Amino acid sequence: MSYTSRYAFLRKIWVVVAMHSVMLWGCAETSPTSEPSQPASTNASEPLQTFQSKLECRPGEVSEQTAAIVQALEPHCADCHNTGSRGYFKSVDAFQQLIVNNPSMIVPGDPDASEFVRLLKGEGTGAFTQMPIGVQTYEDMVQAGTAQLGVDEIESWVRALQQGDMSSSSAPDTKATRVRRLKASEIERALYTSLGLDETDFFREELSHTNGIDTLIRYSDKLYPLRSPDALPASYYGEPSDRYLSLGGFSVIHQTVDDTSYAPAALLTLNQVSQAWCRLAIKKQGNTTLFGAQASVPSSESDVKSIISRWSLHFLGERFDEDQIEELYQNLYVTVVMEEDQEAALTGVCSYFIRHPKWIIL
After folding, report:
1. CA-CA distance, 196 to 143, in Å (whole number)?
2. pLDDT of residue 333
3. Same domain for 107 and 240?
């Protein structure tokens, strides 16, 4: 390893250690010189006092009432919603930005129209009807005594919210939860899993033994195979590794680190790979991953719209409503069918979901 590489590596370690120290000791409530904190109250009417220290070391415009809601719901929600694009409970700022400021989740002054409240009551109207997911709704948990903050108190909080409580600044909040796009290795795994494909769809099973080294032979580069240059056996041809590196992939051989920026090369490669892989997955016989138990390519308008609904949930984790389905059907599927054919149209719809921000970000 060159001197420059060693220096860059050590510098990254130093940055990680420094950030970790800030996270551990940056707030008064976790400082080693602070007094031991008292056990949190189990009384839902007294969450503000126990959460006050978090408010003092947390920047942002979040009310004490909202912070209290976060504290009470955190034990039941943070396990699934602590990271990524759905990291609603990563911090009170994240909750404010992703839930309170989201009109599809909270309608200030109207708890009955707020999807957030409906989910807690088991009356959600989206892909999920309740949160947390399980046998009991949150409302049932309150009645059973396993959750302390009543739904009526949450409804009162929403009822008291005013439009002015919603952030109106157009500038990004640098303290809110952050997301990143998928790494090249994550994109590769997600594509295989989401599209019902595997290596045998791109590479021959028999290995080449050129110069005594086992290598994989692709069927055709028109399929846009993707493979890390560090993977064994390696690809005989260089293009699969070039695509992997274009997506910002880590490689010991090439001395590159993971790059999750939205570089033009990464976006262009994802666009090309998504279309080629989607076309291959659509043509693959018996692909139940894409088409369900029947594994048949849709033909009628209703079948195509059913597939769009299925794919929205499959790729994005949320089911499109009728208006979204109709818009995608008319503006993409019908347009491509008229210009080319159904296979190309379905490929366009499939690759649309892969290029969607909610698929590529984590």
Report:
1. 43
2. 94
3. no
